[in-house]
């Protein structure tokens, strides 16, 4: 029998979260962002739940081919555009829309031979300082693109650095408006956090929103808000079983480094999940976990293949008990990935993208 650990992807939850995105998006169309193999869920597994989106946005050309392989004939957007000139051939062949964020990408387009002109999203660096044309260079890039026979429609795009945080989006929005406010073309400005938190911001207009993390049941502004607040459901469950129990006496320690010492007699369970499965080693004692759908905490250090959980309040639990590391547990119990991520000093995005290849994953 294989180790009991597995990851489940929940198409119904993906579809639910997409509906939540639509409620916030108003008239704007919704890109389902499926980069990084659909945030670790697997593009093919996530597709079923996300196919009601208006388009799919991602970075990797091989992943774009996989979206087409799912039978998707609608819009596909390359969020970083092309990495080298010959990528444009695949864009022509698969009818991919692509971001243009630098002058070289315009040069490549100008030299590209195609019968079908491309739809492009011209990206402004409005303050994130990652990709995009500086505001003062944006209009000339726009004019140059517009004049190319290889280009069909030019849309406008920027990306917010602080949509989930106190600084907000107003400063970047002002920069964008000042430099491009009067340019014709559809616009795509908001990511998940901007969509949820700044939907009503004055002057924020989107024709396309880019819904990433919210689709996967993680709150972009946790712990200020959690998934229940935003009406989101976990889309990935990491689950395993107890493979042993131990009875501790006062003074007994648990695991490598003896990081936990029992103050009283207590029982712990050993779950078949460790950092080699993608569960973060940085999670200390007390990280929330569900055993048979009941909330308890981890005990001591996470090791490569196992971790310990506190069974003090779970006298019925034993070998074979269901352990939910994150996601949807038995009996409707929910453990948001955000809580586990917080205990590890990271964000839900990182955990869902890092489930190890040795963990079997399937759609439920
Ligand atoms: C990843 C990404 C998104 C999605 O961000 P979320 O925070 O997951 O919603 C949107 N836009 C761009 C350019 C991205 O790279």
Short description, anyone?
By secondary structure, the chain is an alpha/beta fold. It has twelve helices and 19 strands.
Describe the structure.
The protein is α/β, with parallel strands linked by helices and 364 residues long. It has 2 domains: 11-216, Alpha-Beta Barrel (TIM Barrel); 236-363, Lyase, Ornithine Decarboxylase, Chain A, domain 1 (Beta Barrel). It is built from 12 helices and 19 strands. It has helices at 11-25, 35-39, 43-50, 61-69, 87-94, 103-110, 135-146, 170-180, 192-197, 227-230, 337-343, 348-353, and strands at residues 6-9, 29-33, 55-58, 76-78, 97-100, 118-124, 151-158, 187-188, 208-211, 236-248, 253-254, 260-261, 266-271, 288-291, 294-299, 307-310, 322-328, 334-335, 361-363. The strands form 3 sheets. It has an 8-stranded parallel sheet with strand order 8-7-6-5-4-3-2-9. The protein has a 6-stranded antiparallel beta barrel with strand order 10-13-16-15-14-17. Strands 11-12 form a two-stranded antiparallel sheet. Helix 8 (170-180) links the parallel strand 7 and strand 8 (187-188). Helix 1 (11-25) packs across helix 3 (43-50). The protein is elongated, with a radius of gyration of 23 Å. The structure holds pyridoxal-5'-phosphate. The site of pyridoxal-5'-phosphate (PLP) has 12 residues, from helix 9 and strand 9.
Q: What's the mean pLDDT score? A: 97
- Major sheet: order of its strands? 8-7-6-5-4-3-2-9
Tell me the number of helical segments per DSSP (H or I, 4 or more residues long). 12
- Note the gap between the termini: 20 Å
Major beta sheet summary: 8 strands, parallel
Question: What is the CATH topology descriptor of the largest domain?
Answer: TIM Barrel
Q: CATH top level of the largest domain?
A: Alpha Beta
CATH homologous superfamily of the largest domain? Alanine racemase
Total count of domains: 2
Poorly predicted spans: none
Shape: elongated
């Amino acid at each position: 029998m294989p180790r009991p650990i597995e990851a489940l992807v929940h198409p119904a939850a993906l579809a639910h979260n997409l509906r939540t995105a639509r409620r916030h998006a108003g008239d704007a169309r919704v890109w389902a962002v499926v980069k990084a193999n659909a945030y670790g869920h697997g593009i093919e597994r996530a597709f079923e739940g996300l196919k009601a989106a208006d388009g799919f946005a991602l970075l990797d050309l091989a992943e774009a081919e996989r979206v087409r392989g799912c039978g998707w004939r609608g819009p596909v957007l390359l969020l970083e555009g092309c990495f080298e000139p010959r990528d444009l051939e695949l864009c022509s062949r698969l009818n991919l829309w692509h971001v243009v964020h630098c002058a070289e990408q315009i040069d490549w387009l100008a030299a590209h031979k195609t019968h079908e002109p491309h739809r492009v999203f011209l990206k402004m660096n409005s303050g994130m300082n990652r990709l995009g044309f500086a505001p003062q260079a944006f209009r000339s890039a726009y004019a140059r693109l517009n004049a190319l026979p290889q280009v069909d429609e030019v849309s406008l795009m920027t990306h917010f650095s602080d949509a989930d945080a106190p600084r907000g989006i107003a400063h970047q929005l002002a920069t964008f408006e000042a430099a491009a406010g009067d340019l014709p073309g559809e616009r795509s400005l908001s990511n998940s956090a901007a969509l949820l938190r700044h939907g009503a911001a004055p002057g924020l207009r989107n024709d396309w929103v880019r819904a990433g993390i919210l689709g996967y049941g993680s709150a972009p502004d946790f712990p200020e808000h959690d998934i229940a607040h935003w009406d989101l459901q976990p889309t990935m469950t990491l689950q395993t079983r107890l493979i042993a129990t131990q009875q501790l006496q006062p003074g007994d320690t648990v695991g490598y480094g003896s990081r936990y010492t029992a103050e009283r007699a207590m029982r712990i369970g050993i779950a078949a999940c460790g950092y080699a499965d993608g569960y973060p080693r940085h999670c200390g004692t007390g990280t929330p976990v569900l055993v048979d759908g009941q909330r308890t905490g981890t005990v001591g250090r996470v090791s490569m293949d196992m971790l310990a959980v506190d069974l003090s309040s779970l006298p019925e639990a034993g070998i074979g008990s269901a352990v939910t590391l994150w996601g949807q547990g038995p009996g409707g119990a929910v453990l948001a990935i955000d809580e586990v991520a917080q205990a590890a000093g990271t964000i839900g995005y990182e955990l869902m993208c890092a489930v190890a290849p040795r963990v079997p994953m399937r759609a439920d």
